[in-house]
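Check out a protein:
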Amino acid sequence: MFSNSTSADLKSPQSFSEKPKQRRSVLHNDIVIKGDWRSDGIVEFGGEITGDLTVDVLIVTDTGKVNGNVRARSVTVEGHFNGTIAAVDVVLASSAVFTGEVVAKNIQIDFGANVEGRLKAAAKTTA
């Protein structure tokens, strides 16, 4: 039924990629955080936070409420955000309620988003 395996059989299969998948944290709508949050992965946030977030990718879901500052590579806001975002890419979805400041290389604002504040797209330099 089972064949005898050798140490050669126990090598990592070729189908596995060498680069591990990025970690993902999912924080649901009943989570309340008072303080700062750090992650080197993807954070899907549906709760409420008063504090600063430093993450690679942040998704504030439609139930999410952020009061603080975010530093990330990519940020998508679908819920409420009050504070400052410093990122490479920022998307304010149609359901977003945003108050504050965005400094990013790329900013996308979907039709219907409620935005009050300052937006600054970093200038592209040509060489």
Remarks:
- Residues 23-113 form one domain.
- The chain has no helices and twelve strands.
- The CA atoms of residues 6 and 12 lie 13 Å apart.
